[in-house]
Give the backbone structure.
Amino acid sequence: MTVHGTPGASPGCGSDTPCNVPTGNVTPLLHEVRHALERWLDAGEEYAIDLRGIPMAPGEEDQLLGTLGEGEVRADLSLTGKTEVVETRFPAVWLVTHYNADDTIIGRFIEVCEMPAILTSQAEDARAGLEFLENLLSENNLQ
Amino acid sequence: MKKDQTLGETLRQQGVSRRSFLKFCATTASLMALPPSMIPVIAATLEKARRPSVIWLSFQECTGCTESITRSSSASIEDLIFNAISLDYHHTLQAASGSAAEEARDTAMQENHGKYILVVDGSIPAENNGYSTIAGISNVDMLKEAAAGAAAIVAVGSCSSFGGIPHANPNPTGAVSVSDLIKDKPIVNVPGCPPIPAVITGVLVQFLTFGLPELDHLGRPKAFYGQSIHDRCYRRPFYDKGLFADTFDDEGARKGWCLYKLGCKGPTTYNACATEKWNDGTSFPIQAGHPCLGCSEPDFWDAGSFYRSLSTPTENIGKTAIYAAAGGLLAGAIVGSALRGRKQSAVKAHQRVTIDDLDKES
Amino acid sequence: MTDAEFLLWVRGPAFNTALFIMLAGIVIRFLEILFLGRKTNLAEARGSEVAGGFRTILRRSVPDMDSFHRSGFTIIAGYVFHIGLFVVIFLFVPHILVFERTLGISWGGLPSNIVDATTVVTIVALLAVLVHRIKDPVMRMLSKFSDYLVWLVTILPLITGWMAFNRVGLSGATLIGVHILSVELLMILFPFTKLSHAFTLFLARWYNGAIAGYKGVQS
């Protein structure tokens, strides 16, 4: 059985029997996002919510993600395992999903910010890239 | 890989981008249930961490803990932890064998004296040193020697944490836990039979990042063992309402009701199974329909049957009841007769007062 | 001793011992009463002893209006906590499992959240009864150490049971262990204090009814 929900979310009672114990966590979470968005607009304050370990029945997680939806930006990152960064229907509210190399979800965050840090280029990586580029160019010159 | 390199340098050398490293820090913070604001702290600390030498000693164990920690069939983010440490000695995973392996262990211990992390799985037979030896050295001696130069000890699995299955009644080898033998070093117990893989790696990462984690009264990291299964179980609403499965695969079981009547030890067991789960978050025993065994608790093998509920007595009380009734009948007959005898003597001793007696007294 | 060892001890040898003492004690007390017997009534029987005995057992379960007017509070609070105790002890599934293990028979229980609410009501009733015992001058004068002890030993399992169900404060094993220990204390004291009224009341009512029935008067 493959699980597509965030690790830590409750599974429900079986794939063929409905889970009739909702947790009611969806609306409070959306309010938390609302408050964070207000603070970001007022003071530029960034905020992140870790969805792991927040108990949600599978229907509820789909409900939450469906409400957030997808907006103008989608980025697929190939790190050790893929990572999806999606700006939701609500600008400045991003959904970052981390996957393992075998496509199981190992982390999911809602980030309220200008852009999630994982999207931005990292100086160390750029330095390594610069070294590589310099080597490439000097090789070409010698040929 | 040089041992003096920082973790950051090591990862870069292996072609792991800083973005990947940030992803690792984010998912690790999530695993340790730390708020997202801690991610930059973890990143900064881990990057500068020196790769510690790790010596892994396996004693009376089934290798299940090693199996658990290596459950990554494909390259996974948790493989990074193995890149973060220098695993200098491990029976199952190392290529060397025989005297070469033992020499490697000795060298690692001397070079890193006072700084290496000692990981132990398996219990130690303390009564007869001959029950378990490695290269002719008894487990007790090897443990004591390795512990002497260790910065800290991580006891992985219920066997090294509490004695485990070898410790179960009648414990023929006199098996004991690491903390029974070593008293002068910090010991972190990571019990479970086996422990959840992510918990093992999480504890090592927590160690590298923050040093010794906060431990509970049984020496277990509170980050992973601070909550009972019962308090995080998704079937808890059924327990609270009193909806229980009576047998395996009956109607209640199929509806996913609480497994208390089937002997679930969730209320007395502290582990991360209900939130972290197994096989990358796929499932855990209760979700699969089997009551929790309590495998991260001491002596769970002897805790009164996996399939007997926590509220029920463990001994054969039918016998007790019969003895009690028999004893009561006997004692009651004796006491009753004695009382009856006293009553009859009192009746006999009863003096009747006649009018003549009254006349005499006046 | 760790909390796991403590729980195993209370579920094992401690329960065995408490059960032995309780059962043996009940049998001994029963035999004491039977052996002492009653004085033989030499008059001719005018009615049935048996009918009289049964009648009194049933009739005294309902208070008459005079008693009610004089001690209404005691009667109501008493009924509340007795019915509450019955529900909590016999209609809570984890307890039914204990009876199943001990007696071999089982029955259906109430939803656990209803039992939880009943526990709270029972605790309140017991507290009210204690307050009344302390404040009422007659009750205070009549009360001895054993009365307070019995009250304590009755309310402790309710409080510890509520704590265990609602997971308040201590570790899981400690909560359950303390609760079972408090029940074992109750079991040990049961035959040797006024708690034994639970079974002697039937004997007492029977005797009174039988005497009246024999005499041919209302029982």
